[in-house]
Amino acid sequence: YNHDTLPIGEFAIGTNTTAYVMGQKYNIQDKLPILIAEKTGPHFAVGDTCYKMSEELKTYNPDGKEIVAKDNEISILRKTEIDKAYFNCHTDITIPYNEIYEISVYNKDGSKVQIIDDGRFVLDGTLKLNEAFKN
């Protein structure tokens, strides 16, 4: 892609831990379909958002939970300068759980909120994502 820079189009943390564990257990990570493989760990995308041109539409997982797609400083330009809003590329980079020490965020007041510690979810509301690791 002929661009000097690209925005972060996505950062997804609550991903498919079951597929990750299955891939590790049976050594089939390289055989998983790409739409499964890219979700086998926290991942970010360089380029356009996942929901290009549909960022404000409500979309739901089969369990009824809403998928929340947010604009970034580039995609929001679709409302005023559509020719500058998208790059027509989206490259996912997935980080395997066994390679993650920590994922944390900092609030405006400087307080730290830990999401993942030593490859496992620790934030209230995300602990269910660890269940696949117990098998």
In short:
It contains 2 helices and 8 strands, in the order E-H-H-E-E-E-E-E-E-E. With 135 residues, it is an alpha+beta fold. The longest helix has 10 residues, at 17-26.
What does this structure look like?
The chain has 135 residues and is of the alpha+beta class. The chain has a domain at 8-98. The chain has 2 helices and 8 strands. It has helices at residues 17-26, 34-37, and strands at 8-12, 43-47, 59-60, 66-67, 90-94, 102-106, 112-117, 120-121. The strands form 3 sheets. A 3-stranded antiparallel sheet has the order 1-2-5, with no helix packed on it. Strand 7 and strand 8 form a beta hairpin. The radius of gyration is 17 Å and the shape is globular. The relative contact order is 0.20. The mean pLDDT is 88.
Number of helices: 2
Which secondary-structure class do the elements indicate? alpha+beta
Cα(first) to Cα(last) distance is 42 Å
How many β-strands, per DSSP? 8
**Average pLDDT figure:** 88
Contiguous low-pLDDT stretches (5 residues minimum) are: none
The strand line-up of the biggest sheet is 1-2-5
* Percentage of residues assigned to helices: 10-25%
Report Rg.
Answer: 17 Å
Tertiary shape:
globular
Q: Quote the beta fraction.
A: 15-25%
The H-and-E topology, N to C, reads as EHHEEEEEEE
Largest sheet: 3 strands, antiparallel
What is the subunit arrangement here?
single chain
